[in-house]
């Protein structure tokens, strides 16, 4: 019997429901991870399914198709060309969703029968899972549309993610200048939990870079609140109302006299940065993807969704 998708997964349930090849294949069938049918591309008719080891294959018995190669059920799925067992694949997917370290993967491993996963295998499958998450999250974000709108307020700020190069006093700007890493633009609407993050292309935060990113996420007519960074000065030219707070004001660097502040978006930076492992700060190959992964994890946590089910595309 397959696991109830409304339950939360843990290692005990992984062993119980996805501990054998047969269980994994049945689970994959039920949850749409392996196709149950396929049309012949030539005859446009249903091909016969032969359930032989390891996952089965499709074959058309009409005309010349009878002499053609068989089509594996794994073609075009998570399992195409894999060298791991099905329990190992599902286990690594589970590990990714729960942010297991390599040490945790080896300690909890129930699927490898004494053989450890190589670092390359773990990295490859984590990258594969992250790619699926990024595709889903960006499509989901596009479906939700832009934040803000007339009568609404969106707070915007940039922050630099990275490792410190040397000591440069306590000023926040000086501290960020002393980092090697990536500038990230953050946007959040007052009264909403819909956080938007964008990595600044080429590590530049000029108006030519920031304004298109803002227009991508924020509706015209929105009141946008920022600090005094000069790149934001042209926001009114694009249909926004612009309010500013001067963080260099010695009297009150956090809230302007009219009540304008960006404390909500600023408060998110520590939470976002806490998510990152040390090695991700200066990795140009996957930094932007890890930013999107954070948004995915944040969203499923707020919805109390099981992360393993979410990775599989299941809805609770």
Please outline the helices and strands.
Elements lengths: L10 H8 L2 H10 L17 E3 L6 E3 L11 E2 L13 H12 L4 H7 L10 H26 L8 E12 L7 H6 L1 E11 L6 E4 L7 H11 L5 E4 L14 E4 L18 H13 L11 H16 L4 H5 L5
Parallel strand pairs: 4-7, 7-8
Antiparallel strand pairs: 1-2, 2-3, 4-5, 5-6
Explain how this protein is built.
The model has no long low-confidence stretch (mean pLDDT 86). The chain contains ten helices and eight strands. The chain is of the alpha/beta class and 316 residues long. The protein has two domains: 11-142, no CATH class; 148-284, Nucleotidyltransferase, domain 5, CATH 3.30.420. The protein starts with 10 loop residues before the first helix and ends in a 5-residue tail after the last helix. Helix 3 packs across helix 5 and helix 5 packs across helix 9 (287-302). The strands form two sheets. It has a five-stranded mixed β-sheet with strand order 6-5-4-7-8, with helices on both faces. A three-stranded antiparallel β-sheet has the order 1-2-3, with no helix packed on it. InterPro entries: IS1016-like_transposase (IPR053164), Tnp_ISXO2-like (IPR024445). Residues 146-299 form the ISXO2-like transposase domain.
């Amino acid at each position: 019997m397959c696991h109830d998708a409304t339950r939360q997964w843990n290692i005990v349930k992984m062993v119980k429901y996805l501990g054998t090849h047969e269980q994994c294949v049945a689970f994959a069938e039920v949850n749409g991870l392996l196709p149950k049918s396929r049309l012949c591309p030539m005859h446009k008719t249903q091909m016969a399914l032969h359930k032989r080891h390891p996952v089965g294959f499709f074959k058309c018995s009409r005309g010349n198709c009878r002499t053609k190669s068989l089509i594996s059920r794994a073609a075009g799925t998570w399992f195409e060309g894999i060298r791991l067992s099905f329990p190992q694949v599902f286990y690594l997917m589970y590990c990714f969703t729960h942010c297991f370290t390599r040490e945790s993967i080896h300690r909890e491993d129930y699927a490898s029968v004494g053989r450890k996963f190589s670092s390359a295998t773990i990295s490859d499958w984590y990258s594969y899972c992250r790619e699926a998450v990024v595709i889903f999250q960006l499509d989901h974000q596009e479906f939700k549309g832009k934040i803000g709108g007339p009568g609404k307020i969106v707070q915007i700020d940039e922050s630099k993610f990275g490792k410190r190069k040397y000591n440069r006093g306590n000023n926040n700007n000086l501290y960020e200048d002393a980092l090697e890493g990536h500038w990230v633009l953050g946007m959040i609407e007052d009264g909403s939990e819909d956080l938007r993050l964008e990595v600044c292309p080429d590590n530049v935060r000029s108006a030519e870079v920031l304004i298109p990113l803002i227009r991508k996420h924020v509706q015209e007519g929105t009141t946008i609140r920022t600090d005094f960074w000069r790149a934001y000065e042209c926001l009114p030219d694009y249909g926004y109302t612009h309010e500013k707070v001067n963080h260099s004001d010695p009297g009150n660097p956090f809230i302007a006299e009219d009540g304008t502040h960006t404390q909500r978006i600023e408060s998110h930076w520590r939470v976002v940065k806490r998510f990152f492992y040390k090695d991700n700060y200066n990795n140009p190959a996957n930094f932007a993807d890890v930013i999107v992964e954070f948004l995915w994890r944040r969203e499923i946590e707020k919805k109390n969704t099981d992360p393993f089910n979410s990775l599989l595309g299941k809805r609770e």
